[in-house]
Amino acid sequence: MSGPATGPEPPEADLSRPGGAAADTDPRGAGLPSPLPEATPALPAHLERLADRARTYVEAASSANTRKAYASDWRHFTGWCRRQGLDVLPPDPHTVGLYITACASGTAGPGSRTNSVSTIERRLSSLTWNYTQRGLALDRKDRHIATVLAGIRNTHAAPPRQKEAVLPEQLIAMLETLDRSTLRGLRDRAMLLFGFAGGLRRSEIVGFDVGRDQTEDGRGWIEILDKGMVAFLRGKTGWREVEIGRGSSEATCPVAALQAWLKFAKIAHGPLFRRVTGEGRNVGPDRLADRQVARLVKKTALAAGIRGDLNEIERALKFSGHSLRAGLASSAEVDERYVQKQLGHASAEMTRRYQRRRDRFRINLTKASGL
């Protein structure tokens, strides 16, 4: 999913219920609607507690990043409606069609830029979700939306910009740029090898705890065995087990790297990957943010001289946390079903997108034709 739109927006009306008054503003503008009514004094105490717990489950139905994007897109849309003098409720396909036209033409707000097709599609999904939470339905098949969106796709669609996959020999070069004599170097080696071998997203890498049920924000835990480790991960489609075998050598073994980090950092409980403070001498209690994974991949890729044919700015744009996940899928010479299972892809088609890159020019039709 693309990141939420940037740029300050004025406070929005609190429209969490159909017919909500525009004057009832939320100065934060970040709250998401709940399909459950707010607890009132008339509600019995035991039902108030149930309602609070139900709202907690509603939040758990989507990731924090998804909720932030939904809230940001709703603020963007309601801000545009207010500036145009249009009503947000009830949902009007004609209004939404005009809104996505404004997004595509770069006129959706002061200083706005033209939104990509993927961003516009994400905004539509956000609007659909937000209206659903308000007990209302937005008909995306209505001609005012569907036909306009089809025209936007035909006019503005561009090939996807995929991040560069980090291949095994490149990963080894990146590891060599890290100082194994420091806690930060040990941590960063473990993160790179763990993320690559597990085919993990950056949010998944930093979401692990050492053991089960150790933190409230943990997304899984690890179990180290003789032949490897199992990472128990709560992903988009529920819980899954990611099996990570030991490497062919100590220098490239993700299990050995993780064990070294845990041993010297003296971590036995809580978040797996943490901040290193005090000029690299101390390990703090706080979990690393997922953006640290992206920064690590960029930094080590640049230090290792990968894609030296590009200038530094272009090289930095090529790599991200996703480069580790793409690297495993692009280089593992195994049946695609095993790669699909490791990455947690819902469909084999998504896995084949990576393997097509791996198999490019393996069969050379130019030479096969006699040229």
From TrEMBL:
Keywords: DNA recombination, DNA-binding. Residues 1-40 are annotated as: Disordered. Residues 161-367 form the Tyr recombinase domain. Signal peptide: none annotated. PROSITE patterns: TYR_RECOMBINASE. It comes from the Bacteria. PANTHER family: DNA ADENINE METHYLTRANSFERASE, PHAGE_INTEGRASE DOMAIN-CONTAINING PROTEIN. This is Site-specific integrase. The lineage of its organism: Bacteria, Pseudomonadati, Pseudomonadota, Alphaproteobacteria, Hyphomicrobiales.
